[in-house]
Amino acid sequence: MNVFERFGLWSEENAARLDQVLASLVALVVCPFVLVTHQNMEWFFGLDISGLWSAVFAALLIFPLVWRRTQPVRSAVLVYSAALVHMLIGPSAIMPADLMVLVALYSVTIYGPRWASRVALISSFAGTALFGYLVAREAGGKLAPALFITFTLGLLFLTVWAFANMRRARIWSMQTLRDKNRMLEIEREQQVQLGAAAERARIAREMHDIVAHSLSVMIAQADGGRYAAKASPEFAEKALSTIADTGRAALADMRRLLGVLRNDVSEEDIDTLAPQPASGDIESLVDQVRSSGVRVSLVRMGTPRALPPGAGLTLYRICQESLTNILKHAGPDPTVTIVLAWGKSSLRLEVEDDGRGAASAAASDGQGMGLLGMKERAALFGGNVKAGPKPGGGYRVELELPLPEVPDEEPPAPV
């Protein structure tokens, strides 16, 4: 930004005070000058020996420019009115203050409405013609001086009006660019905030799935080990081993999840940033839950195939969350059945139990993120989740994910 652009911005921000100062300075210079140079002028009401009336009209032409940017129409009306009265009752001569009419035309064209700009230009032409007529009358009917003055003043008003329109267009263009840049900055900030909110929600879902499942398994193992510590030390030792393994796995998952947020990951930390679990890890998840003493059956149907990026993690997390809810709400000794069915155009997951999960969930505080997180994960890939109690007792979670269709294999050509 150069010096002129900075001055333009500063003058726009301090328009009222700047116009007040400039009008006062011009008045302090012009009014005393007119008072001295326009003595003994012939007015409509007689001879002005002191030049006071010329100074008064000079002030009336200058001081309305105080509002030339804040109230351009009002300022132009006052200046044009003072100039008209001065022409009608004053001498047929141009004094320095009459140039304020040009300033008023320039200001109302830039800062006023379009109609005011056109009216001001037409009024300027009318005033020029009137002044030419007065000059011709004073010259005894000679038209040459009057026509020259009329043409010159009219061309001057037209030039000022044209330059003012160019300035108006530039100001409008600069204002449009500033507004556009401001809107882009606001939109960029909103995009950053939305991205941060989405990332926080994703991390919250991942943390919920990791922590809730691992803690549920550890609590179940701890309770079982506490009751079996005296009767079966071997079972208690196995429960403690399962708690330790589960804690280590949860800690590794948390390091892997939070490690991607770091910028200073070294080569030694690459192993901690292993890929997230996918559909192939469901069997390990089932084995982990079985080790806690829950009877879990895994039924596979169809031919497994590669899932789109992220869909495998979604399948794993929904199955993990369903098993976590069973450990928390199904009650003692539930039987769990997991059905994983691969179709041509969709993948279906069913996790059901015969416990008392529905009654237990109804008595909870309702602040969990589990079911909401499952629905959000499925919606990202165009799937849907249904969860609710089964007729006769128990609870069922159903997930259906759309998959790219597998084309039918063409039969071999006859030999």
Shape: rod-shaped
Integer count of domains: 2
**Overall number of strands:** 7
Low-confidence segments: 270-274, 359-368, 409-415
Number of helices: 12
The structure class reads: alpha+beta
Give the quaternary arrangement of the chains: single chain
Distance between the termini: 80 Å
Mean pLDDT: 79
Query: Proportion of β residues?
Result: 5-15%
Instruction: Report the C-alpha radius of gyration, rounded.
Output: 44 Å
Spatial order of the strands forming the largest sheet: 3-4-5-7-6
- Give the proportion of residues in helices: 55-70%
- What letter string, H or E per element, gives the SSE order? HHEEHHHHHHHEHEEHHEE
Mind summarizing the main beta sheet? 5 strands, mixed
EC number: 2.7.13.3
Region (Disordered): 385-415
Keywords: 4Fe-4S, ATP-binding, Cytoplasm, Iron, Iron-sulfur, Kinase, Membrane, Metal-binding, Nucleotide-binding, Phosphoprotein, Transferase, Transmembrane, Transmembrane helix, Two-component regulatory system
Protein name: Oxygen sensor histidine kinase NreB
